[in-house]
Amino acid sequence: MNFDSPLVNPTLLPSIMSTVHSEPLFQHVTIIGIGLLGGSLGLALKKQGLAKTVVGIGRRQENLELAVQMGAIDQFFLEPHDAVSHSDLIVLATPVETYLPQIDLWGKDLAPSAIVSDVGSVKGQLVSKVEARLLPSTFFVGAHPIAGKEKSGVAHADSHLFQDARCILTPTSHTNAQALERVRHLWETVGSVVSSMDPMDHDWVFGAVSHLPHIAAFSLMHTLEALQGRTSQAGDLLNFSGGGLRDTTRIAASSPEMWRDICVANHENLVEMVDQYIQQLQGFREKLSKRDADGLYDAIARAKASRERLI
To answer: Would the pTM count as exceeding 0.70?
Structure first.
């Protein structure tokens, strides 16, 4: 199949994909960053027979050796050049701030028609910057699987992590249609429910429903730290916590490196959203200070109704 052509007629895509089903969708996949998401993707690719060979790239040899033992990858390298030059799919599963430096290192080593994709939760202007750094003969398809755990690392990888999870693809006017369809087929085959979204819209939406909740959880833990020692009788406040605190702050155990980079990359949207969150907290503060029982009831009831829609 020739993937050098620009956008193709979408009506041809079913016949294109039917030729893929008789053999692996990709011959050689390189996953850069073998943590929870990268490791889980490797396990899922191998389980579903989507790749003939899966190669892992990472910083720590012991972590990569564990990934081989788990069956998440077939082999590994500490440096990416040799692996990416022979791959028809390269997946970035490292913090989003590393994308552009990595593309600068090996982007010109890619074979014609190679596809670069990712699993990052920030897209926005990053997509166009990646596209601009790649050769015209290679393609980028942004992907964001809405899946994960509060525990990071390949030791927690799971081939079922993406089952029934939403995956957002972020094509642009420059996205090759055949490359897009291959990446869509990959995520559907590992069990995801796939949809597409403009990269800028993606960052606003997930700033609200994913990034802001993490900031709220981080801030709540900081608040509890600040309250420590206010009374000599209590000792460590966390010793008295129950399910409510655990449920509310579960995501505060997420990777500091990853979430630092997400916050930096999506800072403009997040500043707006944090301001809105502070405004809501100030509204609660005002009702509390006035002992406004009716106002508090209404605010809590509205929140309950919204939460039940989420369930």
So the answer is: yes
- Yes or no: say if 35 and 144 are a contact pair by the CB < 8 Å rule: no
Task: Give, as one character, the DSSP assignment of residue 30.
Answer: E
Distances (CA, A) of 211 to 217, 254, 278: 10, 12, 15
pLDDT of residue 192: 97
Q: How many CB atoms lie within 10 A of CB 6?
A: 10
> What's the pLDDT score for residue 235?
63
In one-letter notation, the amino acid at residue 86 is H
- The answer for 113, left when phi > 0, alpha when psi is -120 to 50, beta otherwise, is left
Give 109's DSSP letter.
G
What is the length of the chain? 311
Q: Which two tokens stand for residue 101?
A: 């430096």
Q: What letter does residue 93 receive in the DSSP assignment?
A: -
**C-alpha count within 13 angstroms, C-beta hemisphere, residue 222:** 6
Contacting residues for 180 by C-beta, under 8 A, at least 6 apart: 141, 169, 171
Between CA 224 and CA 237 the distance in angstroms is 7
Q: Side-chain half-sphere of 142: how many Cα atoms within 13 Å? A: 27
